[in-house]
Amino acid sequence: MNPQKVRNGPNFMQQLNKKKHVDCALSSNSDSSDDEVDEIVAIKKDVQKQRFSVSAEAYGQFNKKENFKAKFIPKSKEQSERIKQRMQAGFMFSALNEKEIEIVVGAMEEKIFHKAEYVIKQGEEGNVLYVVDTGELDCFKNYGKGDVLLKTYYPGESFGELALLFQSPRAASIIVKSDKAILWQLDRETFNLIVKEASIKKRQQFETFLENWDLLKEIKDPYDKLKMSDALFEKQYKKGDVILQQGQKSQEIFILEQGRVSVNKNNQTLFELTKLGDYFGDQSIVAGTLESFSYVAEGDMKLMYIPKKSYSSTLKEIESTLLKNIQTKYGKYQ
Protein backbone atom coordinates (compact mmCIF):
# COMPACT_ATOMS: atom_id res chain seq x y z
CA MET A 1 0.00 0.00 0.00
CA ASN A 2 1.37 3.37 -0.97
CA PRO A 3 -1.38 5.92 -0.49
CA GLN A 4 -0.62 9.33 -1.92
CA LYS A 5 -1.65 12.49 -0.15
CA VAL A 6 -3.55 14.64 -2.60
CA ARG A 7 -5.00 18.06 -3.05
CA ASN A 8 -7.16 19.13 -0.22
CA GLY A 9 -8.67 22.19 0.49
CA PRO A 10 -14.60 24.54 2.70
CA ASN A 11 -16.29 27.46 1.15
CA PHE A 12 -13.61 29.74 2.50
CA MET A 13 -13.65 32.86 0.36
CA GLN A 14 -17.44 32.98 0.19
CA GLN A 15 -17.68 32.65 3.94
CA LEU A 16 -15.22 35.46 4.53
CA ASN A 17 -17.95 37.98 4.02
CA LYS A 18 -20.16 36.16 6.51
CA LYS A 19 -17.71 35.33 9.27
CA LYS A 20 -15.28 37.24 11.41
CA HIS A 21 -11.83 35.75 11.19
CA VAL A 22 -8.93 36.02 13.56
CA ASP A 23 -5.37 35.45 12.38
CA CYS A 24 -4.40 33.29 15.25
CA ALA A 25 -2.06 30.47 14.47
CA LEU A 26 -3.45 26.99 15.19
CA SER A 27 -4.12 23.53 10.46
CA SER A 28 -3.11 21.95 9.40
CA ASN A 29 -0.50 19.34 8.88
CA SER A 30 -3.26 19.28 15.97
CA ASP A 31 -2.17 19.68 12.30
CA SER A 32 -2.13 23.21 11.93
CA SER A 33 -0.61 26.65 11.59
CA ASP A 34 -0.59 30.49 13.07
CA ASP A 35 -2.94 29.59 10.95
CA GLU A 36 -3.84 26.33 12.21
CA VAL A 37 -3.27 28.24 15.27
CA ASP A 38 -4.48 31.18 13.47
CA GLU A 39 -7.69 29.35 13.03
CA ILE A 40 -7.88 26.79 15.74
CA VAL A 41 -7.82 29.73 17.92
CA ALA A 42 -10.68 31.59 16.42
CA ILE A 43 -12.30 31.75 19.83
CA LYS A 44 -15.75 33.24 20.04
CA LYS A 45 -14.73 36.04 22.34
CA ASP A 46 -12.06 37.26 19.97
CA VAL A 47 -14.20 36.69 16.94
CA GLN A 48 -16.94 38.86 18.36
CA LYS A 49 -14.50 41.66 19.16
CA GLN A 50 -12.44 41.72 16.02
CA ARG A 51 -13.10 41.85 12.32
CA PHE A 52 -10.33 41.63 9.81
CA SER A 53 -11.15 42.37 6.23
CA VAL A 54 -9.65 40.27 3.52
CA SER A 55 -6.44 41.67 2.20
CA ALA A 56 -6.54 42.82 -1.38
CA GLU A 57 -3.83 40.22 -1.83
CA ALA A 58 -6.28 37.50 -0.92
CA TYR A 59 -8.19 38.12 -4.11
CA GLY A 60 -5.24 37.78 -6.21
CA GLN A 61 -3.45 39.60 -8.97
CA PHE A 62 -2.91 36.01 -10.01
CA ASN A 63 -2.18 37.44 -13.47
CA LYS A 64 1.25 38.31 -12.08
CA LYS A 65 2.02 34.68 -11.57
CA GLU A 66 3.40 34.04 -15.05
CA ASN A 67 5.85 36.95 -14.79
CA PHE A 68 6.74 36.34 -11.17
CA LYS A 69 10.40 35.68 -10.41
CA ALA A 70 10.77 34.14 -7.00
CA LYS A 71 13.95 34.53 -5.05
CA PHE A 72 16.23 31.52 -5.13
CA ILE A 73 18.34 30.38 -2.20
CA PRO A 74 20.88 27.65 -3.09
CA LYS A 75 20.47 24.39 -1.18
CA SER A 76 22.00 20.94 -1.15
CA LYS A 77 20.08 18.12 -2.78
CA GLU A 78 19.50 16.64 0.67
CA GLN A 79 18.00 19.89 1.94
CA SER A 80 15.72 20.20 -1.09
CA GLU A 81 14.46 16.64 -0.69
CA ARG A 82 13.88 17.21 3.01
CA ILE A 83 11.80 20.31 2.29
CA LYS A 84 9.73 18.41 -0.26
CA GLN A 85 9.13 15.66 2.27
CA ARG A 86 7.92 18.19 4.83
CA MET A 87 5.74 19.92 2.23
CA GLN A 88 3.99 16.63 1.50
CA ALA A 89 2.61 16.70 5.04
CA GLY A 90 1.09 20.17 4.61
CA PHE A 91 -2.34 20.91 3.15
CA MET A 92 -1.15 24.16 1.57
CA PHE A 93 1.35 22.54 -0.74
CA SER A 94 -0.55 19.44 -1.79
CA ALA A 95 -2.13 21.04 -4.87
CA LEU A 96 1.09 22.42 -6.34
CA ASN A 97 2.44 21.00 -9.58
CA GLU A 98 6.05 19.95 -9.99
CA LYS A 99 7.21 23.31 -11.33
CA GLU A 100 5.48 25.22 -8.51
CA ILE A 101 7.01 22.90 -5.92
CA GLU A 102 10.47 23.63 -7.29
CA ILE A 103 9.82 27.38 -7.10
CA VAL A 104 8.66 27.17 -3.49
CA VAL A 105 11.54 24.91 -2.45
CA GLY A 106 14.00 27.31 -4.06
CA ALA A 107 12.53 30.30 -2.27
CA MET A 108 12.57 28.74 1.20
CA GLU A 109 15.21 29.92 3.63
CA GLU A 110 16.54 27.86 6.53
CA LYS A 111 16.09 29.40 9.97
CA ILE A 112 17.45 27.90 13.18
CA PHE A 113 15.95 28.69 16.59
CA HIS A 114 16.82 27.44 20.06
CA LYS A 115 14.90 26.47 23.18
CA ALA A 116 12.60 29.18 24.59
CA GLU A 117 13.26 31.45 21.60
CA TYR A 118 10.31 33.24 20.01
CA VAL A 119 9.68 32.54 16.33
CA ILE A 120 6.69 34.88 16.14
CA LYS A 121 5.12 37.10 18.78
CA GLN A 122 1.48 37.92 19.29
CA GLY A 123 0.67 41.39 17.95
CA GLU A 124 3.54 41.58 15.47
CA GLU A 125 3.12 42.01 11.74
CA GLY A 126 3.45 38.78 9.80
CA ASN A 127 5.34 38.65 6.50
CA VAL A 128 6.47 35.01 6.34
CA LEU A 129 5.22 31.52 7.08
CA TYR A 130 7.23 28.64 8.48
CA VAL A 131 7.41 24.92 7.83
CA VAL A 132 8.79 22.85 10.71
CA ASP A 133 11.70 20.64 9.66
CA THR A 134 12.95 19.46 13.05
CA GLY A 135 12.03 20.17 16.66
CA GLU A 136 8.82 21.07 18.47
CA LEU A 137 7.25 24.48 19.06
CA ASP A 138 4.47 25.61 21.39
CA CYS A 139 1.80 28.11 20.44
CA PHE A 140 0.49 30.44 23.14
CA LYS A 141 -2.18 33.12 23.08
CA ASN A 142 -2.70 35.82 25.67
CA TYR A 143 -6.34 36.69 26.24
CA GLY A 144 -5.50 39.31 28.84
CA LYS A 145 -5.07 36.96 31.78
CA GLY A 146 -1.79 35.29 30.85
CA ASP A 147 -0.67 32.93 28.11
CA VAL A 148 -2.79 29.93 27.18
CA LEU A 149 -1.17 26.94 25.45
CA LEU A 150 -3.07 26.23 22.24
CA LYS A 151 -1.08 23.48 20.58
CA THR A 152 2.36 22.07 19.82
CA TYR A 153 3.79 22.03 16.30
CA TYR A 154 5.74 19.05 15.01
CA PRO A 155 7.89 18.38 11.91
CA GLY A 156 5.87 18.74 8.72
CA GLU A 157 3.44 21.24 10.17
CA SER A 158 3.36 24.88 9.15
CA PHE A 159 2.21 28.11 10.68
CA GLY A 160 1.88 31.76 9.72
CA GLU A 161 -0.14 31.66 6.51
CA LEU A 162 -3.22 33.54 7.70
CA ALA A 163 -1.14 36.59 8.43
CA LEU A 164 -0.23 36.49 4.74
CA LEU A 165 -3.84 36.12 3.65
CA PHE A 166 -5.26 38.85 5.89
CA GLN A 167 -4.13 42.27 7.01
CA SER A 168 -3.93 41.42 10.67
CA PRO A 169 -1.25 41.01 13.32
CA ARG A 170 -0.09 37.69 14.63
CA ALA A 171 -2.77 36.51 17.01
CA ALA A 172 -0.54 34.10 18.93
CA SER A 173 3.08 33.50 19.86
CA ILE A 174 5.19 30.52 18.78
CA ILE A 175 8.05 29.49 21.09
CA VAL A 176 10.61 26.72 20.63
CA LYS A 177 9.89 23.83 22.97
CA SER A 178 12.75 21.49 22.03
CA ASP A 179 16.45 22.23 22.41
CA LYS A 180 16.61 23.36 18.80
CA ALA A 181 14.21 23.79 15.88
CA ILE A 182 15.04 24.02 12.19
CA LEU A 183 12.37 25.82 10.17
CA TRP A 184 11.98 26.70 6.51
CA GLN A 185 10.76 30.25 5.96
CA LEU A 186 8.70 31.28 2.93
CA ASP A 187 8.21 34.93 1.96
CA ARG A 188 4.86 36.65 1.44
CA GLU A 189 5.18 37.21 -2.31
CA THR A 190 6.01 33.62 -3.18
CA PHE A 191 3.23 32.41 -0.93
CA ASN A 192 0.67 34.79 -2.43
CA LEU A 193 1.48 34.08 -6.06
CA ILE A 194 2.25 30.37 -5.87
CA VAL A 195 0.78 28.73 -2.77
CA LYS A 196 -2.29 30.72 -1.77
CA GLU A 197 -4.77 29.30 -4.26
CA ALA A 198 -4.21 25.78 -2.93
CA SER A 199 -4.64 26.98 0.64
CA ILE A 200 -7.93 28.70 -0.17
CA LYS A 201 -9.32 25.76 -2.11
CA LYS A 202 -8.45 23.41 0.70
CA ARG A 203 -10.48 25.42 3.18
CA GLN A 204 -13.37 25.77 0.74
CA GLN A 205 -13.65 22.04 0.27
CA PHE A 206 -13.41 21.07 3.90
CA GLU A 207 -15.59 23.83 5.34
CA THR A 208 -18.37 22.79 2.98
CA PHE A 209 -18.09 19.17 4.11
CA LEU A 210 -17.92 20.02 7.81
CA GLU A 211 -20.90 22.36 7.63
CA ASN A 212 -23.01 19.47 6.34
CA TRP A 213 -21.54 16.47 8.14
CA ASP A 214 -24.30 14.83 10.21
CA LEU A 215 -21.84 13.83 12.91
CA LEU A 216 -21.29 17.49 13.79
CA LYS A 217 -24.94 18.54 13.88
CA GLU A 218 -24.82 18.95 17.66
CA ILE A 219 -22.05 21.55 17.30
CA LYS A 220 -23.92 24.82 16.84
CA ASP A 221 -21.03 27.28 16.73
CA PRO A 222 -19.74 27.49 13.12
CA TYR A 223 -16.29 28.47 14.38
CA ASP A 224 -15.93 25.17 16.20
CA LYS A 225 -16.39 23.51 12.82
CA LEU A 226 -14.18 26.00 11.02
CA LYS A 227 -11.17 25.17 13.15
CA MET A 228 -11.53 21.50 12.23
CA SER A 229 -10.92 22.22 8.55
CA ASP A 230 -7.22 22.72 9.17
CA ALA A 231 -6.88 19.36 10.88
CA LEU A 232 -8.28 17.52 7.85
CA PHE A 233 -6.08 15.86 5.23
CA GLU A 234 -6.61 13.54 2.28
CA LYS A 235 -5.21 10.27 1.03
CA GLN A 236 -5.89 8.19 -2.06
CA TYR A 237 -6.05 4.41 -2.12
CA LYS A 238 -6.26 1.77 -4.82
CA LYS A 239 -8.37 -1.39 -4.93
CA GLY A 240 -7.12 -3.93 -2.42
CA ASP A 241 -5.16 -1.50 -0.28
CA VAL A 242 -5.48 -2.34 3.40
CA ILE A 243 -6.18 1.00 5.02
CA LEU A 244 -6.33 -0.26 8.59
CA GLN A 245 -5.55 -3.76 9.87
CA GLN A 246 -7.51 -5.69 12.50
CA GLY A 247 -5.58 -5.70 15.78
CA GLN A 248 -3.75 -2.45 15.05
CA LYS A 249 -4.07 0.94 16.71
CA SER A 250 -5.01 3.62 14.23
CA GLN A 251 -3.19 6.95 14.15
CA GLU A 252 -6.03 8.63 12.25
CA ILE A 253 -9.79 8.85 12.15
CA PHE A 254 -10.64 8.19 8.49
CA ILE A 255 -13.65 9.76 6.77
CA LEU A 256 -15.01 8.44 3.48
CA GLU A 257 -14.97 11.00 0.68
CA GLN A 258 -15.21 8.93 -2.50
CA GLY A 259 -15.45 5.19 -3.13
CA ARG A 260 -16.18 2.15 -0.98
CA VAL A 261 -14.46 0.50 1.99
CA SER A 262 -15.12 -3.10 3.02
CA VAL A 263 -15.16 -3.84 6.74
CA ASN A 264 -13.70 -7.28 7.45
CA LYS A 265 -13.18 -9.50 10.47
CA ASN A 266 -11.10 -12.67 10.40
CA ASN A 267 -10.88 -12.37 6.60
CA GLN A 268 -14.65 -12.22 6.16
CA THR A 269 -16.44 -9.12 4.83
CA LEU A 270 -19.16 -7.95 7.19
CA PHE A 271 -20.40 -4.80 5.46
CA GLU A 272 -19.24 -1.83 3.40
CA LEU A 273 -18.91 1.89 4.03
CA THR A 274 -20.26 3.75 1.01
CA LYS A 275 -21.62 7.09 2.22
CA LEU A 276 -19.80 10.43 2.32
CA GLY A 277 -18.96 11.03 5.98
CA ASP A 278 -18.79 7.37 7.02
CA TYR A 279 -15.80 7.10 9.32
CA PHE A 280 -13.55 4.56 11.05
CA GLY A 281 -10.41 4.40 13.19
CA ASP A 282 -12.49 5.65 16.09
CA GLN A 283 -12.05 2.52 18.17
CA SER A 284 -8.36 3.31 18.63
CA ILE A 285 -8.50 7.06 19.08
CA VAL A 286 -11.81 7.53 20.88
CA ALA A 287 -12.14 4.30 22.89
CA GLY A 288 -8.41 3.59 23.18
CA THR A 289 -8.76 -0.04 22.06
CA LEU A 290 -7.27 -2.06 19.21
CA GLU A 291 -9.22 -2.04 15.97
CA SER A 292 -11.63 -4.98 15.80
CA PHE A 293 -11.85 -4.91 12.00
CA SER A 294 -9.77 -4.49 8.86
CA TYR A 295 -10.70 -1.82 6.33
CA VAL A 296 -9.93 -2.44 2.66
CA ALA A 297 -10.35 -0.19 -0.39
CA GLU A 298 -12.87 -1.58 -2.89
CA GLY A 299 -11.55 0.27 -5.91
CA ASP A 300 -9.81 3.62 -6.37
CA MET A 301 -10.95 5.86 -3.58
CA LYS A 302 -10.29 8.95 -1.50
CA LEU A 303 -10.39 9.40 2.26
CA MET A 304 -10.15 12.42 4.49
CA TYR A 305 -8.53 11.91 7.86
CA ILE A 306 -7.91 13.64 11.19
CA PRO A 307 -4.59 12.72 12.83
CA LYS A 308 -4.65 11.40 16.38
CA LYS A 309 -2.75 14.41 17.67
CA SER A 310 -5.54 16.70 16.42
CA TYR A 311 -8.37 14.78 18.08
CA SER A 312 -8.40 16.79 21.30
CA SER A 313 -8.82 20.07 19.41
CA THR A 314 -11.48 18.77 17.01
CA LEU A 315 -13.77 15.78 17.59
CA LYS A 316 -13.21 15.38 21.33
CA GLU A 317 -16.00 17.92 21.82
CA ILE A 318 -18.47 15.23 20.70
CA GLU A 319 -16.70 12.29 22.33
CA SER A 320 -19.83 11.02 24.07
CA THR A 321 -21.57 10.74 20.70
CA LEU A 322 -18.57 9.01 19.18
CA LEU A 323 -18.50 6.43 21.99
CA LYS A 324 -22.20 5.70 21.52
CA ASN A 325 -21.68 5.34 17.79
CA ILE A 326 -18.91 2.78 18.31
CA GLN A 327 -21.39 0.51 20.09
CA THR A 328 -24.09 1.16 17.50
CA LYS A 329 -21.82 0.53 14.50
CA TYR A 330 -19.82 -2.43 15.74
CA GLY A 331 -21.57 -3.91 18.77
CA LYS A 332 -23.32 -6.76 16.98
CA TYR A 333 -20.08 -7.85 15.30
CA GLN A 334 -17.94 -8.04 18.44
UniProtKB/TrEMBL annotation:
Amino-acid positions noted as binding 3',5'-cyclic AMP in the UniProt annotation, renumbered to this chain: 161, 170
Stretches assigned to the Cyclic nucleotide-binding domain: 92-212, 216-315
GO terms for cellular component: cAMP-dependent protein kinase complex; cytosol
GO biological process: adenylate cyclase-activating G protein-coupled receptor signaling pathway; cellular response to stress
SMART domains, per the entry: cNMP
UniProt keyword list: cAMP, cAMP-binding, Nucleotide-binding, Phosphoprotein, Repeat
Stored Pfam families: cNMP_binding
Keyword check for Phosphoprotein: yes
GO molecular function, one term: cAMP-dependent protein kinase inhibitor activity
Gene3D superfamilies in UniProt: Jelly Rolls (2.60.120.10)
Family: Belongs to the cAMP-dependent kinase regulatory chain family.
Protein name: cAMP-dependent protein kinase regulatory subunit
Source organism of this protein record: Paramecium tetraurelia
